[in-house]
Model the fold of this input.
Amino acid sequence: MKNLTMGLSALALFAGLTGAPLAKEDVIAWRPFVSGHTEPLTSSSHAIDTRSVAEKGEIAIEDRPLNLIAANSAGLVDESKEGSHDHEVHDHDEHAHAHDHDDQIYKGYFEDSQIADRPLSDWEGDWQSVYPLLQDGTLAPVMAHKAEAGTMTAEEYTAYYNVGYQTDVERITIEGDTVSFYAAGEPLVADYAYDGYEVLTYEKGNRGVRFIFAKTQGDETAPGFIQFSDHRIAPSTADHYHLYWGDDRAALLEELSNWPTYYPSDLSADEIVAEMLAH
Done:
C-alpha cells in the first residue's frame, strides 16, 4: 500500500510539473526514498498503471539517476527533465567533494604537495582581536556549543581559550608590506617580507602550516617575525587567523598554547559569534 500511495503521489507530481495529465495507457516509474536517498541505481524501476494504480512490472531505465520517471505503456522513458537533473546532481556532487576536501584541510589533514607559498596580501585588512569578546562574555554561546560536542565543559573551554586568545594587541592592520600592531591605541609599525612556511605535526596526528614573514624595516620594538595560521595551506583570502610574533623564529614554532586570534574589524560581535558557531 505504501508503494501504491507513492505511485499516486508521483503521478500527481508529474501532472503538476508538466501541466498536462498522463494518458490512460501511461505508467509512472519511481524509486522509493530510503533515509533521504534513493535506492542504489539498478537497471529497472517499479511501474504503475495510471488508471488502475496496479503495479505493471518494471521498466529498464539504464541507470538514470532519477526518482520519478514518466513512461508510456511501451516502456519508453520521458527524458524531458533528465538532462537538467543529471547536471544538477553532477554540480551537487562536485560541490560536496570540494566542501569535504576543504573541511579535511581545515581539520589539518592534507598532503605536502597541496601546500603553496602565500603572499602577505592574503591577510590584508583591518583586524580586531577576539580576546575582549571572550572576557566580556560575548563568546559564551560559542563555548557552550563546543561543550555540547567536545570533551570539556563550557567553563573549561573558556579557560582554555582565555590562554589561547590572550593578547594586549587589540587591533592589527595590514596594507602592502606594512603591518601595524595596536596596543592601547598606540601602533608599532614595520615592513615584512615572506620567509617561507613550516609544517607542524600536532599531538593527535593532524597538522598545521605557519606562513612566516620577517621584518625588513620599521619600529625597533616591532616583532622580528610574524607567523600566520588560518587553517589554509595555499593562497587564499583569510576570513580570520591566529598570529604568533616575536624575535626568535624557531622558538615561535614551539608556541602552541597562545594563539591570538583576529577577525575583520568591520564585523560586529554577533557576526563573529555566528562565524565561530559555523565552524
